[in-house]
Amino acid sequence: MTTTVVTGLGVVAPTGLGAEEHWAETLAGRSGIGEITRFDARGYPSRLAGEVRRFRAEDHLPGRLLPQTDHMTRLALVAADRALADSGVTPDELPALRSGVVTASSAGGFEFGHRELEALWSRGGEYVSAYQAFAWFYAVNTGQISIRNGLKGPSGVLVSDQAGGLDAIGQARRRIRRGDALVVTGGVDGSLCSWGWVAQLAGGRLSTGTDPATAYLPFDGAAAGHLPGEGGALLVLEERDAALARNAPVYGEIAGYCATFDPPPGSDREPALRRAIRGALDDAGVRPSDVDIVFADAAADDRLDRVESRAIADVFGDRAVPVTAPKVLTGRLGAGAGSLDVATALLALRDGVVPPTPGPQLASHHPIDLVTAARRTRLDTAVVLARGEGGFNSAVVVRTDHTHRPDHLGEHR
């Protein structure tokens, strides 16, 4: 069986630009959440979000790309650049027709679309950018990354809301198993504009808290909704033997993946998250007792949190495995959330540290071991969970690849 490994990480998140900055901020419990600055949110009931601060697209990308790209796509292009550089590959030297891009999106280029529709309404069709034809589209990140790096192999986009980042990784692993040489995958998302904000408020799950430290409290008795954010992570996936042949950095293996869909409301059938977890474990060939850490979806909605904590406890046992949700420091990043958690999980395995979930006080009805302060321990296998609006559930198993650990991957221990 082909073994799919991660050889490059590209992170653009409210906790930092680059994997190591994000990791340092996460371990320190420093939040990237604050008052929204990308638009005037003073008239809205929710005004906090995780923004990628200090990001200037012109510092990273050629000027010709700026007029044709949404802010989200600019973040994605930088994440892809960082992931490819981290993996040590030169795109021009890759087999173009066997190198692809699979990303996820929950909203597309909302900010770009908002601006151009505003021009249409206020000034007329002749003032709408020609780039509106694709800059708003769900698949735009895949397309722009492919074009920029000459990656002409099988590619695609997954649209399953918060679960999308994991679904993209699962699809990319399929491509590697079918013989592709390399796939850039994951999710970078964000719709922090007034149009996107109204759409998120309509879902009824945004926190209206005004203190960044207490507004997003998953698994807490005071849980009252989540905070959104922008950004995510892109990963480079390759077949292990090929990666070893070029002495690539191997962060770990994408060992298992499963996706399920919840039954319709009112059907009296149980939610399908537990089946997703078990399916991913079966796919990886690991037992529940082999898992050292779980990255939770962490909806901060009491009903959804109960479903998740019960599913984790049913599979692994009550309080039997450390559970963490570092997304409390970034907000929920749409399709970028799952892939950022996978990147964080790989760094946790590398350094033997369970990253913290600062803020929440675990409610007694959640039978999990929620880690609120960084905990050092041996970590070999992690499970990452994500759920999307409308019933999507996904789980990914990542584990340490002990056959090859370049020196620089252990330098942070």
UniProtKB/TrEMBL annotation:
<dbReference type="GO" id="GO:0004315">
    <property type="term" value="F:3-oxoacyl-[acyl-carrier-protein] synthase activity"/>
</dbReference>
<feature type="domain" description="Ketosynthase family 3 (KS3)">
    <location>
        <begin position="1"/>
        <end position="400"/>
    </location>
</feature>
<dbReference type="Pfam" id="PF00109">
    <property type="entry name" value="ketoacyl-synt"/>
</dbReference>
<dbReference type="InterPro" id="IPR014031">
    <property type="entry name" value="Ketoacyl_synth_C"/>
</dbReference>
<dbReference type="InterPro" id="IPR016039">
    <property type="entry name" value="Thiolase-like"/>
</dbReference>
<dbReference type="InterPro" id="IPR000794">
    <property type="entry name" value="Beta-ketoacyl_synthase"/>
</dbReference>
<dbReference type="GO" id="GO:0006633">
    <property type="term" value="P:fatty acid biosynthetic process"/>
</dbReference>
<dbReference type="InterPro" id="IPR014030">
    <property type="entry name" value="Ketoacyl_synth_N"/>
</dbReference>
<comment type="similarity">
    <text>Belongs to the thiolase-like superfamily. Beta-ketoacyl-ACP synthases family.</text>
</comment>
<keyword id="KW-0012">Acyltransferase</keyword>
<keyword id="KW-0808">Transferase</keyword>
<protein>
    <submittedName>
        <fullName>Act minimal PKS chain-length factor (CLF/KS beta)</fullName>
    </submittedName>
</protein>
<dbReference type="InterPro" id="IPR020841">
    <property type="entry name" value="PKS_Beta-ketoAc_synthase_dom"/>
</dbReference>
<dbReference type="Pfam" id="PF02801">
    <property type="entry name" value="Ketoacyl-synt_C"/>
</dbReference>
